[in-house]
Backbone:
């Protein structure tokens, strides 16, 4: 159960549009904000695409409920109006600290006192943003994974200043929109998933970069040993190599060497993963 | 195809007996060596158990072929006789450097020139043992995983002195006994599997030990995100917590802290994993 009814999602990019759509799909009134008419036009395209995706990929969503989701989705480029009556604001704007801080300052004044703010930031900690919100007790992170209808974890992470009741409300909200809430008890860069995935992918990359074993053999080993459907290099290709590269490039000396290897042998050759047709494997679709 | 016909397995413990049984099951003549009559009696018990396991778990092995495997398995406690006509010796004795070196010195004199030696050592590098064999060109590592009939990777890892033709023969042999050979191009502590598994399990342990998230939530996250059937803490429980503890205790400062946490909260309370009825989860069977 949740007493959150009206949800505003700031940013209608890949993940912002998914969060907005999933929330509306589950019956909430959602306002999707982006910066100007051009961005909103893109957002309309994304939402139309999501109707189609849900119809095909979400069980039961071909009964008209995917299309009807659009009726609960309002789009606007007026930030103050977007948050003026929101119970919850989920922020999914680009990962630039000053941009997010400015936005929190603006909505901090414009939103009612009751409004909870949640950031979907992958790379910033909520404590980096808490002061800018002007309501650190009603602020926390709610972190989604790409393709939210399928990879439906929602990592919930507060700061030391987050009101436990607010935390609990957001956990309940995550459940209400069909997510599996993953509760973090304190702040951790990378949350749970990237805290596992980054060292896992780095260790795989180190085997290939060091010339110890071929990616396909590394994948085979992992799959046989753990029963997993995907080995680390298949996961690299699904994620796309650019994001792991950026994380490695900002890591320690060992990680930076892996980044250089990834750049030279893959990124610079246009091998970016499944989306580019080739990464560690070739794809012919 | 392989021209290896006669195989001797040194050590009839958990893994040695599995390697010997699997090799005989696939039609090879196998000599299983262990140190004395008492050890050989244990080995007989293990082999009888494996007949039963194969009957139930290996497709097609309930046609009498599991039982018939025993006809191709000879047991002996005479080391020199055990290797006197072997094409391949697979060593799976306890992980004590001096013990292994002594054994290699003895079989180095007793085995014919043609015999290939392979160590199943998990923790030593083959180059630690190569000199003791007296035949470094015909020596390499062939590393199996527990429950070889199911987790059928065989990691093949030579030293700089291993003859490539010998390496190739052992790869072919691994295939011939139903393993998936995983070829390492150079020496790597932990081979492929543990090079992935150790940082993966350590990063999971760090999340729980640091109080960031509960083991069950960590597992849930991994399973949803990657489609894997098992999360890291379920894998801990299957492996048993003692081996990861030993690896952590020999690791860097961070790993040693995790070892201390594992000891205090789990090992010291008798929570050793599935085998003890409880680890990170409780088991009621």
Residues:
């Amino acid at each position: 159960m949740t007493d959150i009814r009206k949800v505003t999602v700031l940013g209608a990019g890949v993940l912002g549009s998914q969060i907005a759509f999933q929330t509306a799909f589950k019956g909430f009134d959602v306002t999707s904000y982006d910066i100007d008419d051009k961005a909103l036009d893109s957002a309309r395209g994304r939402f139309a695409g999501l109707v189609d995706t849900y119809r095909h990929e979400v069980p039961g969503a071909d009964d008209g409920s995917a299309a009807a989701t659009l009726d609960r989705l309002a789009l606007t480029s007026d930030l103050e109006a977007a948050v003026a009556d929101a119970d919850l604001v989920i922020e999914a704007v680009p990962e630039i600290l000053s941009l997010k801080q400015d936005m929190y300052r603006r909505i901090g004044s414009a939103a009612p006192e009751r409004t909870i703010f949640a950031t979907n930031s992958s790379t910033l900690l909520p404590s980096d943003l808490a002061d800018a919100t002007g309501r650190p007790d009603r602020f926390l992170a709610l972190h989604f994974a790409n393709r939210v209808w399928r990879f439906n974890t929602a990592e919930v992470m507060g700061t030391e200043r987050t009101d436990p009741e607010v935390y609990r409300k957001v956990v309940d909200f995550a459940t209400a929109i069909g997510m599996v809430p993953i509760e973090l008890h304190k702040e951790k860069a990378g949350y749970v998933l990237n805290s596992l995935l980054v060292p896992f992918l780095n260790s795989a990359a180190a085997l290939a970069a060091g010339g110890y074993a071929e990616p396909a053999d590394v994948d085979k080993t992992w799959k046989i040993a753990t029963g997993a459907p995907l080995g680390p290099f298949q996961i690299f290709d699904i994620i796309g190599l650019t994001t792991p590269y950026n994380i490695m490039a900002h890591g320690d000396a060992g990680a930076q060497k892996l980044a250089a290897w990834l750049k030279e042998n893959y990124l610079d050759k246009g091998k970016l993963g499944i989306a580019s047709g080739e990464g560690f494997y070739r794809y012919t679709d």
